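A quick aside before the break. I want you to see a complete sequence-to-structure record at least once, exactly as it would be stored in a machine-readable document. Don't worry about memorizing anything.
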Amino acid sequence: MLRPVHIALFEVRRYIVDRGDLAFSLALPMALFALMYGVFGGDETFNGTANVVDLDGGPAAQEFVSRLESVDGLQVRLRSLDEADRALARTSILTAIVIPPGFSDALAAGEPVKLTVKQRGTGGDEGQIVSSIALSVAQRIAAEVQARRWARTTMEGSAIPQPEIDQAAQAAVTQADADPAVDVAVVVEGESGRADGGQFVDRLLPGILVMFLMFAVTLSSQVIVDERRLGTLERLLTTRLTLNQLFAGKFLAGVARAMLQAVVLLALAYAVLRVGGPSSFFQALAFALLVAAAVGAIGLVIGAAARTREQATWAAVFFTMFMTIFGGTFFDPSETKALDVLSHVTLNRYAIDALEGITSGGKSFADYGVQAGIMAGVAVAALTVARWAFRRTVK
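That is the input. The structure line, written in C-alpha cells, reads:
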C-alpha cells in the first residue's frame, strides 16, 4: 500500500529540485499574486494633484487653497497663469484651477463669482475628481461667507458686537457639519466588508489559484510522456510494483504537486490579506484538493494518449487556456448570457464559485456540495479513462 506513496514522494522531490518547474509552479504564481494585489487590492484612497493659479491673493483665496491642502490624498501646487498655460499646452498637466482677481472681495460683497477650470480634453479621471473637490470646497466657503453676511444683516442695529455675530454664525456652520441633516450610507454589494483588497480576494484570488492548479495538467502529462519515451515506466514494472500501484503513484504525485501550489498561494493570501480564519483556510484547501484530483486525472489522460512531449504540451495548454478563459477566471461570466452558458462546461466555473464563497468567509464547504460532486465526478471519470489508456500505453 505504501509503494504508490513512495512513488509520489519521489516525484515531488524531483519536482522540488527542478528549478524550472518550481519557478513556473511557485515563483510565477507568487509574482502574479503580488502584481495583482498591487493593482487591484492596494490602498484605495484617492491621490491627486490640484494645480492652482491664484490671481486674487485675498483671504478667501488663501482659505480655498488651505482647505484643498487639508483634503486627504490631495496635493496642491501653486502655479502662475503662464506656467499653467504652458504645462497644459505640453499636456504635462490636464487641469488647472484659476482663482480670478477680486474673488475674495466679490464673496464678501455677496456678488456672484466664478472659478475657472482649464483642462485638456476631459481632464482625465484625476482632473475631474480634483475639479469636483475644488468646486465643493469653493461652494462651502461661499456658503459660510453668506451665512455670516446673513447673520450680520439680521442682527444689524443690535447691541451684539459684530465679532460675536460672526462667531455664532461660524459655530452654527460647524454644528451643521458635525451633525448633518442628510447622511449617506454606502453599501457595497458583493463584497465581504474588508477595507482593503475585498474585490481582489473575492474573485481574483480563487481565479489565480484555480488557473495554476490547471497548469498541473501540463506537468502530469509531460512526466508520463517523458518516462514512457525513456523506458522508465517499463523498467519500473520489472520491479515489485504492479501496474495499479504505478498508476496510483503517478496520480498521487500529480495531486501532490498541485496541492503544493495551493498551500503556498492560500497561505500567502490568508497571511497577507487576512481573508479568514483557520476554518476557512482548511475548507479552501479541502476543495482545492478535489480540484487537484480532477486536474491530476485529466493530466494522466493526456499523458497516456499523447505520443510526444509536444502533443502532451499543446493538449494540456489548450485545455488549461479554454478552462481559464471561458471559466470566468478574472470576471463573472454570468453577466453575459453566451459566456454564462459556455462557462458551465468548464471546471473553473464551479471551482472558482466555491472557492470564492469559502475564502470570502460567507459560506462553507458544505454549501458547495454540487461543485464538490462535479470535481469528484470528473476525477473518477478521468481516472477510469486514464487507467485504461495507461494499461494500453505501458504494455
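Two observations worth writing down. The CA atoms of residues 45 and 200 lie 16 Å apart. The chain has 16 helices and four strands. We'll return to this after the break.
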